[in-house]
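Q: What structure does this chain adopt?
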Amino acid sequence: MPDDSASDVGADHLSAPSEILHATTVAVEGKAVVILGASGTGKSALALDLIALGAELVADDRTIVTAHAGQLIAEVPDTIRGKIEARSIGILNAHPAGPTPIALAVCLDKEEQARLPKHYTFARFGVKVPLLYRVPYPHFAPAILQFIKAGRSHS
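A:
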């Protein structure tokens, strides 16, 4: 269940700088994971894996990212709220999370090669969050959840 940090985002954030990303976003414990990648790279599929593990849908395919109070906030365009595409199944309904601070970005366009990768960042409007690249192993979705819950060692 999301914590109150997402509810601290008031209507005044609408006047802050924003852009719409070709991204799918889920929320875990009040923290958003933005999944970036070209069409067909598996953004919705990874989101469905994360939802099956307890995440909530913020947005599928288009995510509004706004800078507010030193954070990046993810939210959904009204027309697609609570909807996610499951390829070859159709558009599925999902419990929508509200605007959620972004804690992690995942890019599916590039595959991570290193066993212990460098620490990358994703930045918009001068705000940075950690960035992970695609990992071609079954532990990817659970590892993302663990990253959100407890972070990653800095060593």
